[in-house]
């Protein structure tokens, strides 16, 4: 319980269990975590592009909610156009994935993510990461610090990557994605419970 409380104090952001693809690259000797301006200049173009598209989609969704029911066809057309753009971006982002650096998250949120590594990682080392959530139109590039995320008597395969350099708009996108995933998981759980309960006898 003390370990869980310590983790919550270190990471005030909500996180959710979810498997996403992430590339991790430990920094070489002499490399340092960049400041905000250097990070902005370093982020690959596809990550900036999907961030901007996500921002536009969020604004569009806000505007579409204010349209009346007669605009249903317009809403459908806009959603289809958005889906086409997402598919193109997913293809472009696939080129950013390095299979040799690929891992999968166990959970993620606005403060970082947990993951499994078959190779031991040094406690406190800094890494460059690329986090991919194409199904939510989110892709994030940044830096983090590695922490052990396991009981003391288990193999050192579970780690946490605590964000140390990340654009605020990307953190916001991860927070929104976490909430969307939670809503989907809660809906699926409610549907499964309803199916298990079955129709009530009259």
Any descriptors?
202 residues, alpha+beta, 6-stranded antiparallel β-barrel, 5 helices, 7 strands, 24% strand
3D architecture notes:
The protein has 202 residues and is an alpha+beta fold. Helices cover 44% and strands 24% of the residues. Strands 2-3-4-7-6-5 form a six-stranded antiparallel beta barrel. Strand 5 and strand 6 form a beta hairpin. Helix 3 (45-64) runs antiparallel to helix 4. Mean pLDDT is 82; it is low at 1-9.
Please render the helix and strand layout as text.
Blueprint: H1 2-10, E1 15-17, E2 21-26, H2 36-42, H3 45-64, H4 72-94, E3 102-109, E4 112-116, E5 126-133, E6 138-148, E7 158-165, H5 168-197
Antiparallel strand pairs: 1-3, 2-3, 2-5, 3-4, 4-7, 5-6, 6-7
Summarize this entry quickly.
The chain is of the alpha+beta class and 202 residues long.
């Amino acid at each position: 319980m003390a370990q869980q409380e310590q983790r919550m104090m270190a990471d005030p952001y909500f996180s959710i269990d979810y498997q996403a693809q992430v590339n991790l690259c430990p920094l070489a000797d002499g490399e340092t975590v960049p400041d905000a301006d250097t990070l902005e200049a370093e982020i690959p173009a596809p990550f900036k592009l999907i961030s901007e598209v996500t921002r536009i989609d969020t604004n569009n969704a806000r505007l579409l909610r204010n349209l009346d029911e007669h605009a249903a066809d317009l809403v459908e057309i806009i959603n289809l156009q958005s889906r086409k753009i997402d598919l193109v971006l997913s293809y472009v982002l696939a080129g950013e994935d390095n299979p040799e650096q690929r891992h999968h998250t166990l959970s993620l949120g606005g403060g970082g993510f947990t993951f499994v590594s078959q190779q031991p990682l040094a406690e406190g080392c800094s890494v460059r990461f690329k986090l991919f959530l194409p199904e939510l139109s989110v892709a994030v590039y940044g830096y983090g610090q590695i922490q052990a995320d396991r009981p003391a008597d288990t193999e050192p395969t579970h780690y946490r990557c605590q964000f140390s350099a990340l654009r605020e708009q990307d953190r916001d996108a991860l927070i929104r994605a976490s909430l969307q995933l939670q809503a989907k998981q809660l809906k699926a759980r409610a549907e499964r419970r309803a199916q298990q309960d079955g129709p009530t006898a009259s």
